[in-house]
Structures are given as structure tokens and as C-alpha cells.
Amino acid sequence: MTNPFQDKLTALSVLNKRRALISANGIDFSSNDYLGLAQHAGLRQNLIEHLQSGIALGAGGSRLLRGNHPQHESLERFAAEFFGAEAALFMSTGYLANLAVFTALTARGDKIIFDEYVHASAKEGIHASPAKFSKFTHNNAGACEDAVKRARDRGAKNIWIAVESVYSMDGDIAPLAELMDIANRYDAYLIVDEAHATGVYGPSGRGLSAVFEGAENLIAVHTCGKALGQAGALVTLSQVLKEYLINTARSFIYTTAPTPLMAVAVEAALKVVRDEPKRRADLLDLVAHAHTVFKNVAGQTQILPLLIGDDGAAFDQAKRLQDQGFDIRAIRTPTVPKNTARLRLSITLNVTKSDIDDLAKALAS
User: Fold this and answer.
1) pTM for the full model?
2) Catalytic-residue membership of 69
3) Fewest CB atoms within 10 A around its CB: which of 154, 174, 186, 213?
4) Sign, CA torsion 348/349/353/354
């Protein structure tokens, strides 16, 4: 019997698009552990103490059954205060958070207008939404406004603008002030995925949408598995929208809650971000050095896309660097557009300026 799935895997290999799991090895230029909190000694000790005190190892069920623990509620109270929001909802992953926001809050007759480069998890939520949707040219506020105006003129009930604050593959920043102004003028909602900004940018590491927090038409998704070094996601929003998600978001209702221990870890990580601003300063110093070394690289953040073009060439280049002790990965289609395969260089506190210089020499050779 011919196995069609093996045939499809073989075709992916021929096209240089087949993926494989690779263990972390070498100097970290690929993780999203921007502040180095995944190995933070104080956070580890905090969790050890909670384990010794008898904290539950698992949630035991969904939040609406027996899975709602005091640690979840403590985290949500602290997160709302930290980010300056009216309320926060803790979910298992950023993917599930985006799925919840786009499928539960939108309705038939609504229109979602999204940046063409918004994260795949947001697109999954958008495609599963009952609302109609369209994309606009990346980081083009004028194109966004044109699309919003058309939707309003055609009688859209609610309009939702969806963007990332820092784009995960290009390392550039969304024009949030212009987008928020558009949302306000056209009575629309702005949904901001802060995954790569939380902990790094904005006042006290609160993200780039922090200056707009408290607005009823702002929803932010703060992934906890990147600069916070843990897991899960916090959605910051109004109390009414939080209650609505609790009652209607299937990816929240029908999944086991994050562990109480993870809620403790995320709250502790947020406190590190608040109490150790030197970490952000040190990271931004490294980022500035990297942009000096890689002068012609696009972006302006801790994510530097080293464009190669061809999928196979990007894979080969990544393999060569891995063999020299650098953990850097090739990003290929369909994650990025055709002919824009790249090495995604991620700057974290797990590297030094010397490591960055050495990587540049390896690339030059």
C-alpha cells in the first residue's frame, strides 16, 4: 500500500521545505528568551519553594470546572495592574489566546482587517472567525484606514484591526499610534499581539501598546513564553470582554487550565521585569551592537532577518553555522513569503557582543 503521507514528506524534502525537530545546541541565536529568564536562578528558587509548600502540579481541569486556582487569579490581578489594563485573562498559549479573541469576540456582520504579516496564530483565529476579513499592506497605516473606511461605508457592524507590535520575522515595529487613532476615529477595535515586545519595550517592559491600555477598544495579547521565559499568554482587555471570553471562547472553555505552578512562574517573571530594568537596558545595548555589526539588515529590534532568498540556500547556510557552534535557524516558506527565506537572528541575554562579532565573521567567511 502506498503511503500518501510519506509521498508528501518526500515532496517537502525535494522542495527544501521539510521540517525536523532539532535540540538546542550551541550559542543561542534562535530562541525568544530575550531577557534570559528561562534560566533565572531566582525564578527557579521561587518555584522550588512553591513545590515544597505543596502547590498542585496540575490544574485538574478547565478553569470553569475545578481548574481555577488562587494562583491564576493572583496572576491576573497582578498582570492587570502591571500592564495598566482593567482586566487580564491567563490562557495556556498565545495560539489559544489569539484563537479565543478572534473566534469569540467577532460575529457575522463584523469585519477584521489585518496586517499581511500578522502572526500565523492570529491568522488561524481570523480564518476561524464568523466575520469577514481582509488584509492590508504591511505597516501601511494609510492602507489600513482605507480598508476600515470601506468596511464602515459598507455597513460593517464591528471592525477589528489586527497587528503585531514587533513582527516576529521582520523585527520591525507597527505604527501603533496611527492605528489607534484610526480605531478611535472609526469606532473600531485594535487587537495587538505583543509577543515580541512584552518585557522588552514600552514603559517598564509593558509592551508598545501600554500607552493605550485602559481604552475599551484595545485588546493586547502578551505571550509569556518569550521575554518572560515561561509559558502561556495573558490577554489584557476590559472586564466586560474578559467575562465574555470566559463565557464564549471555546479555546478557553474546553481546555485544561495552565498549571498553578506556571501561573506563579509568570507572576514572578513579571516582577523580575518590573524590578530588574537593567536586563532590558543590557539587552537593548546588545541589540544596538548587533545592528552596528549587521549594517544592512532590516528591522530595528532584537530580531534581525538575514535575508537569503532561496529556501535551500537558507537551510544550507543555517546548517553551516550550526556546525560552527551557532544555534541559528532557517525560516522558509510558507512561514515567510516566497523568495524571502532567511536566517532569523535573535538577540538575547544568552549571548555576548563577542558572540555577535564571531557570528558576523562566520557569515563573512
Assistant:
1) 0.94
2) no
3) 154
4) negative
Distance, CA of 155 to CA of 177 (rounded, Å): 25
Residue 1 has pLDDT above 80, yes or no: no
Q: Which of 224, 242, 274 is the last residue of a domain?
A: 274
Do residues 222 and 314 both lie within one domain? Answer: no
What distance in Å separates the CA atoms of residue 237 and residue 242, rounded to the nearest whole number? 7
Indicate if 32 belongs to the active site: yes
49 is annotated as an active-site residue: no
The verdict on residue 166 lying in a domain is yes
| Residues 67 and 149 grouped into a single domain | yes
Among 30, 46, 168, 209, the active-site one is 168
Told to judge if 153 belongs to the known catalytic residues of this protein, a careful annotator would answer no
The per-residue pLDDT for range 123-161, each reduced to its tens digit, is 999 999 999 999 999 999 999 999 999 999 999 999 999
Provide the number of structural domains found in the chain.
Answer: 2
Active site residue 172: no
Are 331 and 295 spatial neighbours (Cβ–Cβ below 8 Å)?
Answer: no
Cα–Cα distance measured from residue 263 to residue 90, given in angstroms and rounded to the nearest whole number: 8
Catalytic, 168? Answer yes
